[in-house]
């Protein structure tokens, strides 16, 4: 086994932009202490002769098992989604009932659950790959339940700090739960040349449809619950109850998966490492007194960060170019109820129903979505009735991108990390956009036109995304291997004919410069989100 520098996980290369070692059979492969060199290219090795691998092996699972598993996974985010979506209809109520809350502070509340995820999702994604999604799901769902309870108590006491604390506490788990779902969908439904046709696109669309349904519940029921109970904060308590129900479903899924043979269970990095260590003879190199033994902190840090180093350049390009686009959609929906109420003179109840109309719809064309989004948002604030039409453009905001990540990141040992980093970009962008929208509104004179500046800001950001839709199509053909254009059957046929050299062309493998640049952009984005959040949420 060749030695690795103690302070570097990757081996040195002559060319500055050469793919990372594990992405190339010709490059120098780094080794992990205790793991044979030939295992490095895929820590969770896919092999036709290794049916124990739950990541792309030849294990075929019956739909009689997949359907109950899917039914549980779809509801993992029921409570967290309801809690978040029940907040916008209550914006005016919050400002009226709690003296400390203005538009900027509402933006702080609305984005606070995303704030913590700017950093947390990176590490939670790595942990999901290594320790498994179920353990992460149990911990995350527990935080969601606790946060929902704290938020409800804050509403009952009319306390801005307590509500804010509950949102942050809930945010520790809410987005990690989405990464858990994505990891499990990739495990159960991603297709490859061994297992045949996959259903990841269909399942992703189904997941988004259920997410919109949960959002519909929150938007449409918050005001009726407040009116029916006479207490506006009771919608927060309903969110806490639904969060507890979602936690119960995670426990049920855990029992379901544990009832399956080990070959059908998802392979985690920790379990694979134990299997490898069990196969290796004890040598002086593995002596427990050695500083480089597999139990050392440095060793495990190298193992965990491997997932980041293995992410392809195409993924980083997609994540970097979408840094504020999720924020546009979130800022639009989180303020839509008040937009309808202020600009159309409707009641809170009608505004809540109107803002929820977009939830049941979903479409699958990225470019059409982007074009429709910019055109409808352009006129939504100025023409009667088109607020509803504008909201329809948001229904497909995330589907194309979420479904594209497993196609760009083919190595299953990094898929949880990829989703974590993707959502970290999104969460930081949402925080920046939400706080900015609140600040813009506070500086605009009150009245029917108080949202004009907000719409101009969102339109400018979305106009850039229209150009991205055209650029992605070119990049996919030229640098991504056409994985985004091909249907499932054509993609599998193409992959079966590709050589290893073909897979290392363009931006398909991991590249040092793209990884470094992507991490730099993410750090700057996270820092910016924290600065804006502190400035606008803490000042009086």
Describe the structure.
- Residues 1-16 have a biased composition (Basic and acidic residues).
- It catalyses: L-alpha-aminoacyl-L-lysine(out) = L-alpha-aminoacyl-L-lysine(in); L-arginyl-glycine(out) = L-arginyl-glycine(in); L-lysyl-L-lysine(out) = L-lysyl-L-lysine(in); L-alpha-aminoacyl-L-histidine(out) = L-alpha-aminoacyl-L-histidine(in).
- The chain crosses the membrane at residues 134-154, 199-226, 232-256, 385-409, 454-475, 514-536.
- The chain is an all-alpha fold.
- 64% of the residues lie in helices and 0% in strands.
- It has helices spanning 63-73, 78-85, 91-97, 103-115, 117-131, 133-156, 160-189, 200-229, 234-258, 269-279, 297-309, 313-321, 325-344, 348-355, 366-380, 386-392, 399-408, 415-442, 452-478, 488-497, 512-538.
- The longest helix has 30 residues, at 160-189.
- 53% of the residues are buried.
- The model is unreliable at 1-58, 282-294, 350-355 and 357-385 (pLDDT under 50).
